[in-house]
Design brief:
FAD/NAD(P)-binding domain; single chain; 25% strand; alpha/beta; 2 domains; 326 residues; oxidoreductase; Thioredoxin reductase; FAD/NAD-binding_dom; 8 helices; flavoprotein; elongated
């Protein structure tokens, strides 16, 4: 993340502390830094897309390795005086006009506003080979990876209802798509849709991914049959890294995701959530946009507070002047 400090100055108050230094967090930091706000970004250096070789769908950065995007972003943000803190936020307390942000190493940052951009984690099925091939030739997002595996033999692991949509979507990139439904109870309508769109079904329980020469070669079923496949897709269970938001009492929806408005503002005043911690569907470019939108709203919110404080101070000064004249 470029130049970082393990301990921030405990006495300095920040306008905004951002936890999470991915695209969403850095984008928020860039806008706020340019607005001359005092900003700290806390990040532990474990991005969700660390295993991905390239990042697609980001205008002007299509095909760039995610690590390079972060490196460029950190360098840009640092130009505006944003402080980087290498660490992990473990606890946040509300108090006074802001928040106390405690790090794992004991350091405490004070902040008037918070941006939580901690992302999510992917819970993968416990199938041998899945964890080892994840992010390589076992993928999850057709929009992120479909073009790169176009016209190849694709397998879709049926680990949840979303697998049907995923298989149908992947037909846009390949004529050879096979869905392994496993325990999925496909409806008659779904079977008809799959057949009509040319998605083949191979019934049976998947035993493992077959790998040779560090490449996926096929998908093996328990009964021993191996279906040759060049690449596989799976829709993992996506779990938000939202412990900090939960601790603060942020409202969640019926699916367990934090509720925000269009700017990322949560139900807790002064707290914004952006990126995959709030929206599992957000691509990198989407997350960056969410960070920028939050930054505009936060700066406006801080401005309102600054103006109100200035007015109070002004009135106090005028009152003192009148008293001294008398």
């Amino acid at each position: 993340m470029g130049e970082t400090t393990s301990r921030a100055a405990k006495s300095a108050e920040h306008d905004v502390v951002i936890t999470g230094g991915g695209a969403a967090g850095l984008s928020a930091a860039l806008v706020l830094g340019r607005a001359r706000r005092r900003v700290a970004v806390v990040d532990g250096g474990q991005p969700r897309n660390a295993l991905a070789e390239h990042m697609q769908g980001f205008l002007s950065r299509d095909g760039l390795p995610p690590s390079e995007l972060l490196e460029i972003g950190c360098a840009e943000v640092a130009e505006y005086g944003v402080e980087f803190v290498d660490g992990q936020v473990v606890h946040i307390e509300r108090g006074g006009n802001g928040f106390s942000v405690r790090l794992a190493d004991g350091a405490v940052l004070s902040a008037r506003r918070l941006v939580v951009a901690t992302g999510l984690r992917d819970e993968l099925p416990e199938i041998p080979g899945v964890a080892e091939r994840w992010g390589r030739d076992l993928l999850h997002c057709p929009y992120c990876h479909g073009y790169e595996v176009r016209d190849r033999a694709i397998g879709v692991l049926g680990t949840g209802p979303a697998a049907v949509h995923q298989a149908l979507l992947l037909r846009q990139w390949s004529d050879d798509v096979v869905l392994f439904p496993q325990a999925l109870a496909l409806t008659d309508d779904e079977r008809e849709q799959l057949a009509a769109c040319g998605v083949h079904l191979i019934e049976g329980q998947v035993k493992q991914l077959v790998v040779a020469d560090d490449r996926l070669r096929g998908i093996e079923l328990i009964e021993g049959h191996v279906a040759p496949r060049d690449v596989a897709f799976v829709f993992p269970r996506m779990l938000p890294r939202d412990a900090l938001l939960t601790e603060l009492g942020c409202e969640k929806d019926e699916k367990g995701w934090v509720v925000t408005d269009r700017t990322g503002c949560t139900s807790v005043p002064g707290v914004w959530a952006v990126g995959n911690v709030a929206d599992p569907r957000a691509l990198v470019i989407t997350a960056a946009g969410m960070g920028a939108a939050a930054a505009f709203a936060i700066n406006s919110d801080l401005l309102d507070e600054d103006v109100a404080r200035a007015v109070d101070d002004h009135r106090g000064s005028e009152a003192e002047s009148l008293t001294s004249v008398r």
